[in-house]
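In response to the reviewer comment on reproducibility (Comment 2.3), we provide here a single inverse folding case reported in full, input and output, so that an independent group could reproduce the run without further information from us. The structure tokens appear first.
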């Protein structure tokens, strides 16, 4: 039996080593998160609809991928603080931004001189949820319907107040004034949770935010949702009429929530993460969590999100620019 040539053996070992090394590097490039930990940054406070969605979605991501997910709330400065933290993080696929369309659509129209551009500085991954604002009143009012509120507000211009904390909640209030001909006083708050707490305490008369945000207090009877600004009644709140049923037919606002990576994140990581996130959107635990919170799932990806963003900026721009709507003062 002849001896196996040493040079041939060394070449074989070298080829195997090279093959393993290339495989490791390729897997590392394609893996969405190198260390198995994904951070989801939410530039809104705890208790907001974005926070509710992020925590339910993070759980679903773990279920479908095995990744450990950390949800980090970074509210403040009309979402600038949280977004800047993502821009300051490495573009390595380990930090994900979750924002609502108030950030991607309304803020560019209402908040001047933002230090970033969502369409330029971020890569859209997957849109994961959507909702509509409810007409929520607290103990300071005795009204049983939107019709009653509007009639009273018309009789006493400027008497009634509405709380706002985001561009969406402010726009919802100003659109209500425009659609009904009433005049209210806006009371700004730093966070949505603070506005809702003020409503439950009777400090303001109205807050126009989604049912998920007021769910706990509405179940306790401290807040009442009189109508929903959606095309149809919600499956989870069949007793709550639409604004159209309450005599305001052209009052509809739909907010949507999407996930983003920082621009220049490797394309392989973007592709891999999109695949994980789309699986998470369809996870039973996630769809059930949204249903309980009176939210709906959404499933757009990549360029579809960009197209929706551009079309809504154009649509809302026709409303906001002529009216010179500005963000809530802080």
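Designed residues, in position order:
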């Amino acid at each position: 039996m002849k001896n196996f040539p040493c040079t041939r053996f060394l070449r074989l070992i070298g080829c195997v080593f090279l093959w393993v090394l290339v495989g490791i590097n390729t897997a590392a490039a394609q893996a969405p998160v190198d260390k198995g930990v994904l951070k989801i940054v939410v530039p809104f406070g705890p208790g907001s609809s974005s926070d509710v969605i992020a925590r339910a979605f993070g759980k679903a991501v773990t279920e479908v991928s095995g990744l450990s997910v950390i949800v980090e709330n970074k509210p403040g400065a009309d979402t600038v603080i949280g977004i800047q933290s993502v821009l300051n993080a490495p573009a390595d696929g380990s930090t994900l931004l979750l924002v609502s369309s108030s950030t991607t659509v309304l803020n560019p129209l209402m908040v001047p001189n933002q230090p970033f551009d969502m369409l330029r500085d971020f890569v859209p991954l997957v849109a994961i949820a959507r909702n509509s604002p409810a007409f929520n009143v607290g103990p300071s009012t005795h009204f049983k319907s939107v019709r009653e509120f509007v009639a009273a507000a018309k009789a006493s211009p400027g008497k009634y107040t509405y709380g706002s904390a985001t561009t969406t909640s402010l726009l919802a209030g100003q659109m209500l004034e425009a659609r009904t001909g009433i005049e209210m006083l806006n009371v700004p708050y730093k966070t949505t949770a603070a506005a809702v707490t003020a409503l439950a305490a009777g400090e303001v008369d109205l807050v126009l935010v989604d049912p998920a945000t007021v769910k706990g207090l509405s179940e306790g009877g401290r807040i009442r949702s009189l109508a929903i600004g959606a095309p149809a009644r919600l499956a989870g709140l069949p007793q709550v009429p639409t604004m159209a049923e309450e005599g305001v037919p052209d009052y509809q606002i739909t907010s949507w929530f999407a996930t983003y990576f920082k621009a220049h994140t490797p394309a392989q990581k973007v592709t891999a993460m999109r695949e994980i996130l789309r699986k998470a959107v369809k996870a039973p635990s996630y769809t059930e969590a949204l249903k309980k919170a009176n939210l709906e799932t959404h499933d757009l990806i990549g360029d579809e999100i960009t197209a929706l963003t551009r079309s809504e900026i154009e649509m809302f721009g026709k409303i906001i620019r002529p009216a010179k709507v500005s963000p809530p003062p802080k």
